[in-house]
Amino acid sequence: MPQPEGNIGAGLAAAAEHFLARGVAVVLVDSDSPTLPLAHLEEAVELLRSGDVDCVVGPAVDGGYCMLGLARSCPSMFVDVPWSTDRVVPITLERAAAARLKTRVLPAWWDVDTPEDLSRLEHALFSSWWPADTAQWLRRRMLARLPHDPAAVVPEEERWRAPWHRLSSRAVYETPWLRVREDRVRLPTGGHTTYSVIDSGECVGVLPFTDDGQVLLVRQVRYITGRVSWEMPTGGKGRDETKEHAARRELAEEAHVAAAQLEHFCSYHTSKSAMDETAHLFLAHGLSAAVGHADETEFMRIETVPLERALAMVDSGDITDGMTIIALLHALRIGRSLAP
User: Fold this and answer.
1) pTM of the prediction?
2) Beta bridge partners of 154
3) Which end of the chain is more exposed for a tag (fewer CB within 10 A), N or C?
4) What's the angle, vertex CA 259, arms to CA 253 and CA 260, rounded to 5?
């Protein structure tokens, strides 16, 4: 319906009187409360329909209200009200009492007034759970009807190389070893989507060569695969640790050796889709005994095998660890079967 000139109160009064003048009860919902639970709306309608209640107030947590239901006219309820303050609900209840309206106050809900509220709204609409049918409808509309920002649209022939822009991010799950997050992302089309990311940081892998040209591998059961894995020493890199230091630490912890020569030859992304993890790979020569302590969940056996046998184990499927396979193929490519 057309909005009259004036403040918020004038618009609310006009909307209420439009229906009340026709003998129809009305429930007004602020447009900045899209997550208002459907149960609140249903309760307001049932209370007004019962004939026992003339006014239903759904307070906002900031002192205003996000829903107002009326079965009887009360123009004074919208006049000289300090809108957008915590005095709105108290004054509304005072005016309702003065007009002898039977009033019911429902549980408070939140609306969107600040940047923090907007962030909360985004998380509510784009999570796996929606507080109301209204929010679910908005989510479908926001995903299907965008672009939101026409100025951000990249020509179709350039979209293959255009970056995606992260607008916000929230942690879904976190442990000392990894973090799962949901990012709101703007696409080259100008539209938006939610992207789930497993962030496990950086890791290292070291392929050690003995003086007689054999490779040193470790064997251990991997919980994910449920089988014994042949692999080179690997592990996570600390946040403040250099990749070289992490490589030497893992070499000592898992293979109990130190390297006189450590050669970094490759850094790559272990997964290009959902996993944010970068692996740094090394070759190690000039081995000597070292003291290191494996993690309490690591139970390993150390073995040395000729490079040719290790490559054959890749072909046979006995070695399936991606970091180890890349390191072995690199060693083959440069002919590094013997110490330099």
Assistant:
1) 0.55
2) none
3) N
4) 155
